[in-house]
Amino acid sequence: MRAPEVFLMDEPLSNLDAKLRVSTRQDIIELHKQLGTVTIYVTHDQAEAMAMADKILIMRDGVVQQYGKPEELYDNPRNLFVARFIGSPSMNILKGTLSNKGIFNSGGVNYDLSEFVKKEVLPTDKREIVLGFRPEKVTQVKKSGDNDTAPENSAQKEGFFVFSASKNLTEYMGGHTLVYLKTKDGVNIVTQTPKRIPNDDSHKKLDLYIRNSNIYLFDAKSGLTLQNG
């Protein structure tokens, strides 16, 4: 009887329909528990990787980007590629510049992150960065004012990053609702909420609140993380 030291599975579920994929995925997990054999499972489906893996190795163009437990990659991505690959819907990103005073400028609007950004991240002048946050980490949504300044700067001082976007549409998914928005300069944003929200009030301007601890900063050129939460 053969007793292999390692099993290699190269996208074994890619040709199955969605329902069969889920049930077969569970069968593979159970089989792995019974045999206890190291299994290398290759997939382009991040949900499959998150659901099945004890540890995940993410590669890009043949180069290892990060290796670790699913929750480690999700909570502490090493770079922007990993951050956007893990999680569905994908992480939202805002491009902009960071000043030596901790002011983040995106789309012509200034946001005061001085109470949040670590000193070693601050540039001598300005640096191009990417600010990211996950859709489910938007803690509150309020009707916005009509000015073009950063909304509720006092809230930013109290541990929240707050910015405005216009609602486009919603998708009711049963257990949650996806809300699609667009910023003034055309950046697409998606938030996830357990509430059921009707697909109306299109183009309504809203203020989105994200706790600073749920914000990620990346260098725009290298994509490497600057500060996680």
How would you portray this structure in words?
There is one protein chain. The protein is an alpha+beta fold and 229 residues long. 18% of the residues lie in helices and 40% in strands. The strands form four sheets. It has a six-stranded antiparallel β-sheet. The protein has a five-stranded antiparallel β-sheet with strand order 9-13-10-11-12. A two-stranded parallel sheet has the order 1-2. The chain is globular. The model has no long low-confidence stretch (mean pLDDT 88).
Kindly state the number of beta strands. Answer: 15
**H/E series, N to C?**
EHEHEEHHEEEEEHEEEEEE
> Which class best fits the helix and strand makeup?
alpha+beta
First-to-last CA distance: 51 Å
Mean pLDDT: 88
Strand order of the largest sheet: 7-6-5-8-14-15
Please tell me how large the radius of gyration is.
21 Å
The general outline is globular
Biggest sheet architecture = 6 strands, antiparallel
User: Are there runs of 5+ residues with pLDDT below 50, and where?
Assistant: none
Strand content: 35-45%
Counting DSSP H or I runs of 4 or more residues, the number of helices is: 5
Helix content: 10-25%
